[in-house]
């Protein structure tokens, strides 16, 4: 920008006249304490800087603003530099305020306010211009990424002054990246790299790069990329029932989480096709049994595949008998507890009404209990009969073996005395009755 030659000439003429007047009067305008007062300024690039120079005590001495190149901007209320961005805000003997709009980085530097006393007194104010960082960009993202790939995401922002700070976020959680700063003139280019091995858990995760800078007082600059990861499927079967019984409704759901989605899935039974499609309905990922029966027993397999691989899961179905009474629990015990035979024998033997009150339809269900009870009763009866027979034979064989000597002699005696005599006599003549055989 060039000065108007006529204006410059006029300014210097006025300045010379003022000096001559001061000299003719023999007065020195620079009274003690008559100094210009200024303040340093900080403004964001593209903003407006208002620069003020004040004098507490002024005896009608002119004020002047000059830029870092020592070009005069304003001399009092007279504009000296042709720059439409520079305007006069206020001019008086005690204050000179100017504004610089649409500030650029080249406007940064030391500005001088001069008070034309004898000697001239000056004050300097530094104008700092903040470079606003550009919106960041994320590079290095491959769409789609494959599970197990090693990728490096790079976030770049330019034009910051001072150098900006970059932060990475995985969804809402901050993760640490590697930062690099390069100067480019008065501004800086900042890079931040994030390295990782891609997992299926990263599918759909948003990676965000945020710029922190003093010039961004309201909304920070940021960029976001959503990671898409392709991976082979994994299959699992979820049954709607824990215990399957005849006549029940059962749904088997084939859950697969591959990307791309393995649709449709394939259902087989025992390595072959589903046999009864009227009663076994295959719809999407679900296999539905409208009414279970024993013929449904078998191994059911669900298989899913995409361009990265395949997976399968199996479900072994065993259909139990339908209960005749309401079961107390939907889950049968892993180890059934046999009934206490002693208690059953005592109950049914002492209370015949128990048998009469039992449900005859439950025979099939409790046939095993009845057979066990009958066997125990038969064994007890048989053992009892054997004991009776053995005891009778024993008593019969030992009958009369405990007769006294008196009883032995009483068979032919008319009274007790005779019996005693006969018994003693038998002993007396016992020797006579011996026979000898040659």
Report on this model:
21% of the residues lie in helices and 35% in strands. It is built from 6 helices and 27 strands. A hairpin with a 2-residue loop joins strand 24 and strand 25. The radius of gyration is 59 Å and the shape is rod-shaped. It starts with a helix and ends in a 10-residue tail after the last helix. Mean pLDDT is 79; it is low at 1-6, 19-32, 331-367 and 424-438.
Short description:
The chain has 438 residues and is α+β, with helices and mostly antiparallel strands.
Which segments are poorly predicted (pLDDT under 50) over 5 or more consecutive residues?
Answer: 1-6, 19-32, 331-367, 424-438
Q: How do the strands line up in the largest sheet? A: 2-10-9-4-5-6
Indicate the proportion of strand residues: 25-35%
Indicate the overall shape.
rod-shaped
DSSP summary, beta strand count? 27
Radius of gyration: 59 Å
> Which secondary-structure class do the elements indicate?
alpha+beta
How far do the termini sit from each other?
180 Å
Question: Treating each run of at least 4 consecutive H or I residues as one helix, how many helices?
Answer: 6
For the sheet with most strands, the description reads:
6 strands, mixed
Query: What is the share of helical residues?
Result: 10-25%
Average residue pLDDT: 79
Quick tags:
single chain; 438 residues; alpha+beta; 6 helices; rod-shaped; disordered N terminus; disordered C terminus
């Amino acid at each position: 920008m060039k000065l108007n030659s006529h204006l410059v000439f006029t300014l210097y003429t006025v300045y010379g006249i003022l000096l001559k007047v001061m000299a003719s009067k023999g007065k020195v305008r620079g009274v003690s304490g008559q100094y210009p007062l200024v303040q340093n300024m900080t403004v964001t690039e593209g903003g407006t800087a208002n620069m003020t120079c004040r004098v507490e005590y002024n005896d009608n001495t002119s004020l002047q603003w000059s830029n870092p190149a020592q070009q005069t901007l304003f001399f009092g209320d007279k504009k000296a530099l042709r720059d439409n961005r520079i305007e006069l805000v206020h001019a008086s003997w005690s204050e000179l305020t100017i504004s610089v709009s649409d500030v650029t980085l080249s406007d940064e530097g030391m500005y001088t306010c001069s008070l034309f006393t004898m000697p001239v007194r000056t004050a300097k104010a530094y104008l700092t211009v903040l470079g606003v960082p550009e919106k960041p960009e994320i590079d290095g993202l491959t769409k789609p990424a494959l599970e197990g790939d090693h990728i490096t995401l790079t976030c770049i922002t330019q034009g910051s002054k001072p150098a900006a700070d970059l932060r990475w976020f995985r969804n809402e959680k901050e993760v640490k990246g590697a930062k690099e700063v390069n100067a480019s003139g008065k501004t800086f280019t900042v890079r931040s790299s994030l390295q990782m091995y891609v997992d299926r858990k990263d599918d759909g995760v948003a990676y965000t790069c945020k710029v922190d800078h003093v010039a961004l007082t309201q909304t920070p600059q940021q960029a976001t990329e959503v990671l898409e990861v392709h991976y082979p499927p994994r299959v699992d079967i979820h049954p709607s029932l824990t215990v399957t019984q005849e006549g029940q409704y059962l749904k088997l759901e084939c859950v697969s989480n591959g990307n791309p989605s393995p649709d449709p899935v394939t259902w087989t039974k025992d390595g072959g096709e589903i046999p009864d499609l009227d009663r076994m309905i295959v719809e999407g990922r679900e296999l539905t049994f409208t009414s279970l029966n024993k013929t449904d027993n078998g191994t059911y397999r669900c298989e899913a595949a995409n361009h990265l691989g395949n997976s399968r899961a199996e479900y072994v179905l065993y259909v139990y008998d339908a209960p005749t009474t309401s079961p107390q629990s939907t889950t049968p015990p892993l180890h059934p507890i046999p009934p206490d035979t002693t208690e059953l024998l005592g109950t049914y033997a002492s209370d015949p009404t128990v048998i009469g009150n039992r449900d005859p339809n439950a025979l099939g269900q409790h046939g095993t209990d009845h057979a066990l009870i009958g066997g125990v009763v038969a064994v007890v009866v048989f053992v009892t009969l054997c004991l009776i027979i053995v005891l009778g034979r024993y008593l019969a064989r030992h009958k009369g073996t405990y007769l006294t000597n008196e009883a032995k002699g009483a068979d032919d005696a008319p009274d007790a005395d005779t019996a005693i005599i006969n018994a003693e006599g038998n002993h007396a003549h016992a020797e006579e009755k011996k026979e000898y055989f040659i």
